[in-house]
Amino acid sequence: MRINWNYIKIIALFLVVTGLYAFSNHRSQRRIVQRLNIEFVGNQNLYITEGMVNKLLIQNYGPLTNVPKEKLALNTIEEVIETNEMVKSAQVYLTVNGELTSKIIQRRPIGRIEGNSKFYLDDEGKRMPLSMSHSARVPIITGKITGKGLEDVYKILKYINQDDFLRKNVIGIHIADEEKYQLKFRMDQFVVNLGGVDNLEGKFNNFKAFYTKANKDKTLEAYNMVSLEFKNQVVCTKI
Description:
This protein is an alpha/beta fold. It is built from 6 helices and 12 strands. It has 2 domains: about 80 residues, membrane protein fhac (Ubiquitin-like (UB roll), Roll); about 130 residues, Rossmann fold. The strands form 2 sheets. It has a 9-stranded mixed sheet. The protein has a 3-stranded mixed sheet with strand order 1-3-2.
């Protein structure tokens, strides 16, 4: 009887690979969490701290160090972290050296509402609570705070954040009424009557042209109000 050594080699190789895989899988399942690592993605101010995240995890799971890997539901841990109102998203994974890492993206405030209730408006137009850890330097929103008003203010804030000049200089938005929004500037005493949120690009381009000329002529301090409410016009009121 002739022995097919190639056939035997294939079977042996298969058994070795299977054994190594089973051994590796067994060791992986027995791996325990050595330590926790909290990372905040991006150069952001911390509206939620590492200590707050650890406290949240302990409240839900107890201490996570020395816990076997098979007892961890990483998706559930992500969902728990995302229950914090400062968190936009979280990614949790276990490294080969047993480190449980949580990468967190925070929500980003773009305006602060100062009304009967105080909160931030984030970059998705959603309400975001104020933080005990950090106060964001964003435009202050005052006046008649309504649902429609906040929708329009969000559109204005989005435009402002896309423009370097406006982002550096607009410090507040006042809601006088629906379709009547006023901008407050950092360096000058005048108020800019924006009107509604129609044709924001045209209005702001007209304003920047006026501002550049008035600044060059050194006449900005002569005005206390600038209106952009009229189509293709900048109407100024002197002090």
